[in-house]
C-alpha cells in the first residue's frame, strides 16, 4: 500500500494554530517558489507559526497569478506591489471568480504574513533586514542570512543554486539548499507546508544537539551520532524525513552564500 | 553595553544582541561595538560568549553593508582575538567555525593590505599568488603555495583517514544504510506480491465476476471426506474428478473467475479434511520443514493469506541450511501426505560461443526496449532521496543497467585468457563488455545531441569502475594498468561527433564539462577543431569554460589554448584575450620569441609559461 505522506510524523499537528515558543536555538529558514505566493508563502506561514525565523522569495521573472482565461494572467512586478494591493485589485475586478479559484483567500493570507512578493535574485544576501519588522517570522532574520533554503520546485532549486554560484560566495557561509517538490495548488501547498515544517523541526533538533555539546573535550566523549556536526547530519535527516514523506521528493545540496 | 558580572549569561547575551541590532540598523557603529565586545568574547570567556562573538565577527566581516575599507581597518583590531581563539586546541567547535568564517572573509583584505599593490583594479576579493611581488619583505610566493597545498592535503586527508572499525564515527551511519538496504529489499519482495492486484486487472476480474455471478447462486461443489489410508497432498485439495493436466490448463481462468463462496467452501473443505487427518495421525511436526511460526504443540491449523515466514526469516533459513539438497521437494510435508518429487530437466549445456551469442541477444533486446522508451512521457516516476538505481523501468533505468553491465559485470575477467586442452582460446573472441560498448557507442552516435546524457552516464560509469578497480587491485605504490576504457571510448566518441559540430553547438561545452575526468589527449582533440575557422570560437569558449569552472583542469585547458594560439593564426585574437587574464606575459613572450628567432613561435606545452 502506498504510504501516505507524513504517515508517521510524530510532531504535534499545527493545524491553524500557533505553536508555543519553546525558545532555545533556532535555525533560520528561507522558503522559495516561483511567484512567492502559494507554496513558499504557505511554508513561510507554517514556519513562522512554529516561531522559526523565516523569509521567503520567488525565482520567477514576474509574479504571475491566474486570470479569467489561461491567456490573461494577472502579472505584477516583484518587490513593487503589495499583497494587499493585489487583493484589492482582484477583488474589484471579479469578486466571484477570484473567490472561487482561491486567489483572494491566498492573497488574504499572504498580506497577513508580509508586505509583498520578493524576488530571490534581487535579495542582497547579508544586508541587514531591519525594515521588515512587521513580517511574520522576522525575529532572527535581521542579519540578512539564513541557514537553510527550502525550494518548492526543482526549477526554483536550479535557479537558486545557479544564482548562488554566480554570486561567487563572497560571505564564506555555508547554506543547505533543499528542494521539496510540491505541486502548485492550494491543497498540495498545504501538505507541502506541513512536510517542510516537519523537516525544519528535524533539522532544528539536530542543530540544537550540536549546540548542546560544548568545547572540544565533551566533543570527543560524545557518541558517534552526536559527534557529527549538524552540517554532516543533514543528508541523513532528509533521508529519514523522506521515508515519512515519500510523496514529497527531495533534493539537497550544500551551497555557499 | 558593558556586561556587569551580576547579570546572568542569558541576560548578557540579550544585551549583546541589543548591540548587534544597533549595528545592523546602522553599520557605522561597528568599530565601537567591536571594540567594546572584544574583551567579552576573548579566549578566557565562557563558551556562550565566545560562540556569540565569533558569529558576530563572522557576520561583521561577511556583510556587504560594511565597505571593504572599513573592514580592512577593523580586521587589524580583531586579528589578535581571532588568533588566540583559534589556537586553543580545546576550542569549542562552533567557536572555531565562526572564527574560520571570519578569517576567511578577512584573508583577502589582509592579503591585499600586506601586498599593498599599487593599482587596485578588478574584484577586491579576488586574490592570487601572482599579486605577491618576487622580493616582498613579508610574503614568499613559494612558501604561500607550499602552505596552501599543505593545508589542502590536510583537509583532503580527512576524507581518506576513514578506518573501518566500530569506533568509526560513521559506523552508525553505515548501520543505517544497511538497515535501509534491508528495508528496500523487503519492499521489492512486497512490490512483487502487489503487482498482481493492479487496478485494471481487478476491475477486469470484477467484470467477469458479474457475468458469472448469476450462475453460482448456490456453490456448486461437493465436499467428500478423504478416503482411508495414504493420501497425497493433491488428493487432499481435490474436490472434482478432472484429470490433473486438464485442471492445470484451466486453473488460471478458473481462479480468475472463481466465486468467493465456492472458494470459501473449498477452503473449509480442505481445512476439515486436514483437521480430520490430524486427529487420525497425531505425529510430531518435523521441525525441519514446518513453518517457523507453528509451535510443535499447536495443532490449531490456521491457514492465512500471508507468507508464513517473512523475507528475513526465509533468508535466515536459506543461509543456515547446510546444503542445497535439503531444499528440494522430496521432503514429506506431513507424515503420509507426500508430494511427488519434481525435478526440472537439466538445461542443455552451452559452449562459450553459444553463451556469448545468447548474451548478445539479451543485450540487443535491452537496446530494443530503450528505443521504444525514447522520450519518456512520465519523466521521474520517483524522485527524491532513498532511490534505488534502475528501479523505474524507464529509459534511464535501462541505461543504468546496460552501462553497469558493460563496465562492472566482468571487470577484471576480460584480461584472463582461458585455454582449453588444445591450448586454443576457449573464450569468444569479443568480450561481452566490449560488444555492449560498441552498441552504446552506436546508440549515442545515432542521435548524439539528444543522447549526450547517455554518453556522460556511460563514461562516468567507466571512469568510476576504473577508479574502484585501481583502488582494490593495485599493490600500494605501484601504478595499475587497468584497461583504460574511459579515455579510449571518450576519444572515440569525440572523434565521431566532432565532424558534425557547427559553430553554435553547445553540446561540446556540455560534454566536456560533464565528463568526470579530462586528459591532455581529450583536450588535444578540441584543438583539432580549430582547423575549421568557423569552429575556432566554439573550441576556445569550450576550453575557456573549463578554465573558469573546472579548476582541476585549468592548467591543461590553458595549455591547450596556448597550443591553439601557437598553431592557428586565425585563433590568435580570441586565444590571446583569454590568455591575457590567466597567463599574462605568455603572448608577449611568444611574440618576442617569434620576432627574435623569426622561426616557429613557441615550443610545446608550457615551454613559455609566464607566472
Distance between the termini of chain B: 51 Å
- Assembly category: heterodimer
Q: Element order, helices and strands of chain B?
A: HHHHHHHHHHHHHHHHHHHHHHH
What is the global morphology of chain B? flat
- Morphology of chain A: globular
> Helix coverage percent of residues of chain A?
40-55%
Strands of chain A, total number? 7
Write out the strand line-up for the largest beta sheet of chain A, numbering strands in chain order.
Answer: 2-1-5-6-7
How many strands, what sense, and barrel or not for the largest sheet of chain B? none
* Helicity level of chain B: 55-70%
Q: Segments of chain A where pLDDT lies below 50 for 5+ residues?
A: 8-14, 217-222
**CATH topology label of the largest domain in chain A:** Rossmann fold
Which class best fits the helix and strand makeup of chain B? mainly alpha
Q: What integer is the average pLDDT of chain B?
A: 77
Sheet with the most strands of chain A?
Answer: 5 strands, mixed
The proportion of strand residues of chain A reads 5-15%
Tally the helices of chain B: what do you get? 23
CATH class of the largest domain in chain A: Alpha Beta
Kindly state the number of beta strands of chain B: 0
Taken as a percent bin, the fraction of beta residues of chain B is under 5%
Organism (chain A): Xylaria grammica
Catalytic activity (chain A): O-phospho-L-seryl-[protein] + H2O = L-seryl-[protein] + phosphate; O-phospho-L-threonyl-[protein] + H2O = L-threonyl-[protein] + phosphate
InterPro entries (chain A): RNA_pol_II_suA (IPR006811)
GO molecular function, one term (chain A): RNA polymerase II CTD heptapeptide repeat phosphatase activity
In short:
The complex is a heterodimer of chains A (257) and B (611). With 257 residues, chain A is α/β, with parallel strands linked by helices.
Describe the structure.
Chain B: One of its GO terms (biological process) is mRNA processing. Chain B: This is Symplekin/Pta1 N-terminal domain-containing protein. Chain B: Keywords: mRNA processing, Nucleus. The complex is a heterodimer of chains A (257) and B (611). With 257 residues, chain A is of the alpha/beta class. Chain A contains nine helices and seven strands; from the N terminus they run βαβββαααβαβααααβ. Chain A has two domains: 1-60 and 119-257, Rossmann fold (3-Layer(aba) Sandwich), CATH 3.40.50; 63-117, no CATH class. Chain A starts with 28 loop residues before the first strand and ends with a strand. Mean pLDDT of chain A is 90; it is low at 8-14 and 217-222. With 611 residues, chain B is mostly helical. The chains are: A alpha/beta (257), B mainly alpha (611). At the A-B interface, helix 7, helix 8, helix 9 and strand 7 of A face helix 1, helix 3, helix 5 and helix 7 of B.
Amino acid at each position: 500500500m502506498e504510504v501516505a505522506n507524513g504517515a508517521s510524523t510524530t510532531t504535534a499537528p499545527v493545524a491553524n494554530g500557533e505553536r508555543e515558543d519553546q525558545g532555545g536555538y533556532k535555525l533560520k529558514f528561507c522558503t522559495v517558489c516561483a511567484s512567492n505566493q502559494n507554496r513558499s508563502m504557505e511554508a513561510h506561514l507554517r514556519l513562522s507559526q512554529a516561531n522559526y525565523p523565516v523569509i521567503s522569495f520567488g525565482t520567477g521573472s514576474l509574479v504571475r497569478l491566474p486570470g479569467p482565461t489561461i491567456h490573461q494572467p494577472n502579472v505584477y512586478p516583484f518587490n513593487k506591489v503589495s499583497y494587499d494591493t493585489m487583493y484589492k485589485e482582484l477583488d474589484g475586478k471579479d469578486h466571484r471568480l477570484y473567490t472561487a479559484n482561491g486567489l483572494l483567500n491566498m492573497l488574504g493570507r499572504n498580506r497577513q504574513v508580509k508586505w509583498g512578493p520578493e524576488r530571490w535574485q534581487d535579495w542582497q544576501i547579508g544586508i541587514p533586514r531591519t525594515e521588515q519588522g512587521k513580517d511574520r517570522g522576522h525575529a532572527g532574520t535581521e542579519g540578512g542570512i539564513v541557514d537553510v533554503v527550502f525550494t518548492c520546485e526543482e526549477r526554483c532549486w536550479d535557479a537558486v543554486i545557479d544564482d548562488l554560484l554566480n554570486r561567487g560566495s563572497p560571505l564564506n557561509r555555508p547554506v543547505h539548499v533543499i528542494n521539496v517538490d510540491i505541486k502548485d495548488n492550494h491543497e498540495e501547498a498545504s501538505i507541502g507546508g506541513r512536510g517542510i515544517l516537519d523537516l525544519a523541526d528535524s533539522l532544528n533538533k539536530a542543530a540544537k544537539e550540536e549546540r548542546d555539546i560544548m568545547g572540544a573535550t565533551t566533543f570527543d566523549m560524545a557518541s558517534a551520532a552526536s559527534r557529527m556536526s549538524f552540517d554532516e547530519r543533514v543528508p541523513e535527516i532528509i533521508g529519514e524525513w523522506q521515508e515519512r514523506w515519500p510523496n514529497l521528493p527531495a533534493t539537497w545540496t550544500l551551497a555557499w552564500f | 553595553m558593558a556586561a556587569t558580572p551580576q547579570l546572568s549569561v542569558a541576560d548578557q547575551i540579550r544585551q549583546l544582541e541589543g548591540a548587534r541590532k544597533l549595528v545592523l540598523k546602522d553599520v557605522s557603529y561597528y568599530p565601537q561595538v567591536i571594540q567594546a565586545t572584544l574583551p567579552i568574547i576573548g579566549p578566557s570567556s565562557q563558551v556562550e560568549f565566545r560562540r556569540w562573538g565569533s558569529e558576530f565577527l563572522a557576520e561583521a566581516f561577511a556583510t556587504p553593508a560594511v565597505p571593504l575599507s572599513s573592514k580592512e581597518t577593523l580586521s587589524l583590531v580583531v586579528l589578535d582575538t581571532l588568533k588566540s581563539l583559534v589556537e586553543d586546541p580545546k576550542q569549542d567547535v562552533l567557536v572555531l567555525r565562526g572564527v574560520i568564517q571570519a578569517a576567511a572573509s578577512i584573508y583577502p583584505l589582509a592579503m591585499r593590505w600586506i601586498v599593498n599593490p599599487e593599482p587596485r583594479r578588478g574584484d577586491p576579493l579576488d586574490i592570487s599568488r601572482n599579486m605577491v611581488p618576487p622580493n616582498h619583505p613579508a610574503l614568499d610566493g613559494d612558501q604561500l603555495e607550499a602552505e596552501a597545498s599543505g593545508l589542502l592535503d590536510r583537509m583532503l586527508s580527512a576524507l581518506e583517514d576513514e578506518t573501518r572499525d566500530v569506533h568509526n564515527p560513521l559506523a552508525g551511519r553505515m548501520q543505517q544504510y544497511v538497515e535501509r538496504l534491508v528495508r528496500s529489499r523487503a519492499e521489492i519482495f512486497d512490490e512483487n506480491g502487489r503487482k498482481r492486484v493492479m487496478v485494471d486487472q481487478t476491475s477486469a476480474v470484477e467484470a467477469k465476476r458479474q457475468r458469472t455471478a448469476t450462475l453460482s447462486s448456490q456453490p456448486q461443489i461437493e465436499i467428500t471426506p478423504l478416503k482411508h489410508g495414504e493420501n497425497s497432498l493433491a488428493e487432499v485439495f481435490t474436490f472434482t474428478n478432472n484429470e490433473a493436466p486438464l485442471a492445470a490448463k484451466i486453473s488460471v481462468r478458473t481462479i480468475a473467475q472463481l466465486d468467493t463462496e465456492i472458494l470459501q467452501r473449498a477452503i473449509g473443505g480442505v481445512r476439515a479434511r486436514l483437521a480430520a487427518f490430524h486427529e487420525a495421525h497425531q505425529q510430531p511436526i518435523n521441525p525441519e520443514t514446518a513453518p517457523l511460526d507453528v509451535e510443535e504443540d499447536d495443532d490449531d491449523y490456521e491457514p492465512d493469506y500471508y507468507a508464513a515466514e517473512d523475507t528475513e526469516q526465509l533468508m535466515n533459513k536459506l543461509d543456515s541450511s547446510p546444503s542445497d539438497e535439503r531444499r528440494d521437494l522430496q521432503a514429506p510435508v506431513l507424515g503420509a501426505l507426500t508430494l511427488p518429487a519434481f525435478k526440472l530437466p537439466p538445461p542443455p549445456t552451452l559452449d562459450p560461443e553459444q553463451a556469448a551469442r545468447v548474451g548478445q541477444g539479451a543485450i540487443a533486446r535491452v537496446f530494443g526496449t530503450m528505443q521504444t522508451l525514447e522520450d519518456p512521457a512520465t519523466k521521474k516516476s520517483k524522485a527524491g532521496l532513498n532511490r534505488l538505481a534502475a528501479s523505474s523501468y524507464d529509459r534511464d533505468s535501462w541505461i543504468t543497467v546496460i552501462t553497469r553491465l558493460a563496465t562492472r559485470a566482468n571487470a577484471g575477467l576480460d584480461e584472463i585468457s582461458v585455454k582449453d586442452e588444445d591450448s586454443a582460446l576457449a573464450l569468444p573472441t569479443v568480450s561481452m563488455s566490449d560488444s555492449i560498448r560498441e552498441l552504446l557507442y552506436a546508440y549515442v552516435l545515432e542521435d548524439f545531441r539528444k543522447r549526450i546524457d547517455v554518453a556522460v552516464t556511460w563514461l562516468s560509469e567507466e571512469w568510476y569502475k576504473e577508479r574502484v578497480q585501481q583502488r582494490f587491485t593495485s599493490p600500494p605504490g605501484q601504478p595499475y594498468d587497468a584497461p583504460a576504457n574511459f579515455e579510449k571510448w571518450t576519444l572515440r566518441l569525440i572523434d565521431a561527433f566532432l565532424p558534425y559540430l557547427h559553430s553554435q553547438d553547445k553540446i561540446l561545452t556540455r560534454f566536456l564539462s560533464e565528463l568526470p575526468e579530462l586528459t591532455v589527449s581529450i583536450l588535444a582533440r578540441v584543438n583539432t577543431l580549430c582547423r575549421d575557422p568557423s569552429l575556432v570560437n566554439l573550441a576556445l569558449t569550450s576550453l575557456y569554460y573549463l578554465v573558469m569552472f573546472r579548476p582541476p583542469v585549468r592548467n591543461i585547458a590553458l595549455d591547450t589554448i596556448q597550443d591553439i594560439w601557437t598553431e592557428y593564426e586565425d585563433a590568435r585574437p580570441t586565444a590571446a584575450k583569454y590568455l591575457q587574464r590567466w597567463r599574462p606575459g605568455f603572448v608577449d613572450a611568444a611574440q618576442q620569441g617569434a620576432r627574435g628567432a623569426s622561426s616557429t613561435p613557441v615550443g610545446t606545452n608550457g615551454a613559455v609559461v609566464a607566472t
